[in-house]
Please model this.
Amino acid sequence: MQPPSRFEQLALPHQEAAFNLAYWLLRSRADAEDAVQEAFLRAFRAFDSFRGEEFRPWLFAIVRNVSYRMLNSRQRAANVISLDAALPGHDHEGGSYLNIAADEPSAEDVMMGEVDRDLVRLALAELPAAFREVVVLREIEGLGYREIAEITGTVVGTVMSRLSRGRMLLRQTLARKIGKDRSHAV
Amino acid sequence: MPCNQHSHLLSAYIDGELPDSEHEALTQHIIGCSDCAALAEELRETSSMVSGLGREPLPVGLSHRLRRTLAQTQDRSGTIGTQERVAPGKLSPSAGAYRPWIRAGLLKHAAVFFIACLLSSLATWSVLTGSTKDNLLAQDLLSAHLRSLLQDSPIQVASSDAHTVKPWFAGKVDFSPEVRDLVAQGYPLLGGRLDTIAGRRVGALVYKRRLHIINVFAWTSGDGSEVSPALSTRNGYNILKWTRGGVTYAAVSDVESSELQRLPDLL
Model:
C-alpha cells in the first residue's frame, strides 16, 4: 500500500458528507454508495484540472452531477420496466422511500423523539430536489450560501430564495404531519 | 401569511446571510412585528429539526472500498510499471507512446522543483521581513485546533455548564476566561481543556456549531489595551482574534467567518 496521495488526503475527509449529499439526492443508500464511488473516481481523474480553488465545492459539485445523472438514467429505466414493478411509493430497489426512516434508533432519536425524527426525514425526502439539495447543504453540512451556490451552479440570490421556499414548505409539511401524528396518538 | 414584504428574507436573516444594513433593518422590523418574529422562530425550529438529523451514516466498508479503488486507479495511471495493462507481445509498439509521457513527467518534476525553490525563498524572505510573529501565532493556533480534532475528544473537562468549566481553569492558568454556554444562540459549549500556544499555557473553550468544532483559545494579553476582533484565514480555517479585559481570545474553526464573528459579541 503506498502512502495516501494528495487527492486522497483532500478527498477522503469528505466521504461522509459526500455520501450524505448523494443519499438525499437519490434517496437510496445503495445508489448513493455507487454515486460516491463513481464521483470520487471521476474527481481523481479530473484532479489535474483542479486549480487550487476550494476543494470541497469542487468535489461536491461532482458528487451532485453524478447523482443527478444516475437519477435520470434510473428514471428512464423505470419507465421501461414493466408496470407491475412500479408499485406506488416503491423505487426499483424494492425499498420504499416512504420507509426512508432509519431502522435503528440513534442517540439523537431519543433526544428528538423517534416519531418526529422519522417525520422530518420523510418531509425532507418529499421536498422537490431543487429545494432538498440546498436544505441538506445548509442544515446538515452547515455550508454558507456562497459555497452552496458554487456547488449547485447557481448564484447566492437563487440559493437564498430556494432555501427560503424549502424551509417554508418543510415547515408546512411538518406542521401537518406532526399535527396529524399527535391527533392519532390522542 | 401576513407581512408579505419581509417573509422571504427571514430565512436568510436567521442564517446571518443578509448584508449588515438589511440585517439591522430587519431586526428593527421584527421587534415591532409579531408575525415576522413568530415566523422567524418557526423557521429556526424547522432548521434545527433538519440539522438535528445529522449525516446519513456511511455504509460499512465503503470507506475501505473507496481507498482501494483509488489506490488501484493510481497504480494503473501511475509510473511505467503498468504490466497489468500491457500484454507482453504488444510492449514494443506501445513503448514509444510512453516517451512524451516521460518528458511531461520530467517537466512536471522540474516545475515542482522550481516552485519549491520559489516558495522556500519566499518563506526566507518573509521570515527576514517581520510580520512573522502573527504568522507563527496563526500557524500555532491552527495546529492546536487540528491537534484537538485528531484526539478522541477535544476536551478535558466536559460540561455544558459554564460554572463547571470556569472554576476548572482556576489554578491551571493565570487568568479567568469568560465562559458562557451559548446553546440558545446555537453554539453549545462542549467543555474546556489546556493547550500550548507559542510555548505558553493557554485555556481552550470548545464550542460546537452544527457539525463544526470551534476552539476558543484564551491567554493573558501583554498590556491592558482592548483590541477589536480581527479575522484571518489559514488553509481554509478562519481565525478570529480579539482582546478584552486583559485576556486575548482566538477562535479557530472551519465554520463560516460570519458565524465565527458572532462569538465575540456573545461571549
